[in-house]
């Protein structure tokens, strides 16, 4: 496989509002219905579980999409990384869609993410529809047969057909001896860093580190001898 045809990506998402009580009444009512399925502990409340709103496309939004592609030269290669980030989600998505439409629009191009088939790819597509952004061909799987969908998922690759459990990128990287990207914040911190600290640059750095780790994990899974710097 031509590694330069693969676009590695990761997204960071947050809740649409800083806190449950700051959301409009209709939004609160709909979240309350959702929260009934999320409250597992006695101390859980509709308000306290709102920190999980960012993982649902109906209640969250994307604040960063980091992408990377491998620039290959025999056994050595580097990963070129670019990020689309900001508080204007529609503008962010339009810029990302422009990249896909102009550079990743042929049948031999592929997108790769960790748990991408369950999270990143559908989340991006749903938020594009909500924001009125046309879904690029490579992301739009409607009407396509499974073998026509150009999506790679390192978690699915690691499962080898096993459907029992979830394996995080951090755990998989550790198993392969790849340094963890989680040396500052992790996914549970993103909402706080965005809404309370207003530090989008920190989130972008975190997201880009995940893309580098993702690419390294993919190369391990395909047993490539390519080394990324």
Structure summarized in a few sentences:
It is built from seven helices and six strands.
- Helix tally equals 7
**CATH-assigned homologous superfamily of the largest domain:** Ribonuclease H-like superfamily/Ribonuclease H
Number of discrete domains = 2
Low-confidence stretches: none
Provide tags for this entry.
single chain, 229 residues, alpha/beta, Nucleotidyltransferase, domain 5, 2 domains, 7 helices, 6 strands, 34% helix, 19% strand, globular
What does this structure look like?
The chain is α/β, with parallel strands linked by helices and 229 residues long. It is 34% helix and 19% strand.
Helix and strand layout, with pairings?
Blueprint: E1 6-15, H1 25-35, E2 60-73, E3 76-85, H2 89-103, E4 110-113, H3 120-131, E5 151-153, H4 154-159, H5 169-175, H6 190-195, H7 200-221, E6 227-228
Parallel strand pairs: 1-4, 3-6, 4-5
Antiparallel strand pairs: 1-2, 2-3
Helix pairs in contact: 2-3
